[in-house]
Amino acid sequence: DQQVKQNSPSLSVQEGRISILNCDYTNSMFDYFLWYKKYPAEGPTFLISISSIKDKNEDGRFTVFLNKSAKHLSLHIVPSQPGDSAVYFCAASGQGTYKYIFGTGTRLKVLA
Amino acid sequence: GAVVSQHPSRVICKSGTSVKIECRSLDFQATTMFWYRQFPKQSLMLMATSNEGSKATYEQGVEKDKFLINHASLTLSTLTVTSAHPEDSSFYICSASNRQSTYNEQFFGPGTRLTVL
């Protein structure tokens, strides 16, 4: 039972354009969501997070949007840069637990 | 962010041997550490959660006698893969958390690539 899903395994975007990565979840008890970037053979690097009390959080080029009614979150990267090419994982955490449930990842390729 | 290290970064061993992987939080006290494994092109799957000074809590389907976890101090947790077999070959990643942080923030180590021949 995949509680956190990223339905697009890959995405290609032209440099300078917007990258939009999507994530859906099924558990309404999740109250904290994160995005991580990962390169092959390395650990995930934290990008941005959002609490369920908010619907948007912005940090530089990265913005995360949360739609609780749709159980959907998205990561916007603008402008996209070739260095953003990596696998992006969304993760969710539930109230009272420190466990993360990771999505299946989306491989982003930013074309120069 | 906080720094978490793992050692070794990669290990190759023969089938039947045991392998120990260390996870250290270098600049903060990790009350909780997590162990994940990742197969190629797949998600990070949580294996177990360990709190300092207590027994680890294993996720469903993870054999606790095969994957021994020790969290003896606030800066060190170890994962021992006992009697390793080729199907145990994977990328193992630890993360560390401090419950005094604002949210449930986890800091990840760089991972350990295990190859069992």
How does the SSE layout of this entry go?
The complex is a heterodimer of chains A (112) and B (117).
Chain A: E1 4-5, E2 10-14, E3 19-25, E4 30-38, E5 45-51, E6 56-59, E7 62-67, E8 72-77, E9 86-94, E10 100-102, E11 106-111
Parallel strand pairs in A: 2-11
Antiparallel strand pairs in A: 1-3, 3-8, 4-5, 4-9, 6-7, 7-8, 9-10, 9-11
Chain B: E1 4-7, E2 10-13, E3 19-25, E4 32-38, E5 44-51, E6 57-58, E7 67-73, E8 76-81, E9 90-97, E10 106-108, E11 112-116
Parallel strand pairs in B: 2-11
Antiparallel strand pairs in B: 1-3, 3-8, 4-5, 4-9, 5-6, 7-8, 9-10, 9-11
Describe this structure in words.
The complex is a heterodimer of chains A (112) and B (117). With 112 residues, chain A is mainly β. Chain A is built from no helices and 11 strands. In chain A, the strands form 2 sheets. In chain A, strands 2, 4, 5, 9, 10 and 11 form a 6-stranded mixed β-sheet that branches. Chain A is globular and about 40 Å long. The mean pLDDT of chain A is 93. With 117 residues, chain B is mostly beta strands. In chain B, 0% of the residues lie in helices and 52% in strands. In chain B, β9 and β10 form a beta hairpin. Chains A and B meet through β5 and β10 of A and β4, β5, β9 and β10 of B.
Search tags:
heterodimer, A: 112 residues, mainly beta, five-stranded antiparallel beta sheet, 11 strands, B: 117 residues, seven-stranded mixed beta sheet, 0% helix, globular
Task: Provide a concise account of the structure shown.
The complex is a heterodimer of chains A (112) and B (117). With 112 residues, chain A is an all-beta fold.
Which series of helices and strands of chain B comes N to C? EEEEEEEEEEE
Count the strands of chain A?
Answer: 11
Alpha-carbon distance between the termini of chain A? 38 Å
Radius of gyration of chain B: 13 Å
Number of helices of chain A: 0
Helical percent range of chain B? under 10%
The chain-level mean pLDDT of chain A equals: 93
Please mark out the parts of chain A with pLDDT under 50 across 5 or more consecutive residues, or reply none. Answer: none
Largest sheet of chain A: 6 strands, mixed
Helix count of chain B equals 0
- Class based on secondary structure composition and strand pairing of chain B: mainly beta
Outline the low-pLDDT stretches of chain B: none
Residue share in β-strands of chain A: over 45%
Overall geometry of chain B comes to globular
Helix content of chain A: under 10%
Distance between the termini of chain B: 36 Å
Radius of gyration of chain A: 13 Å
Q: Give me the oligomer status.
A: heterodimer
- Largest interface, chains and sizes: A-B, 21 and 27 residues
Name the shape of chain A in a single word: globular
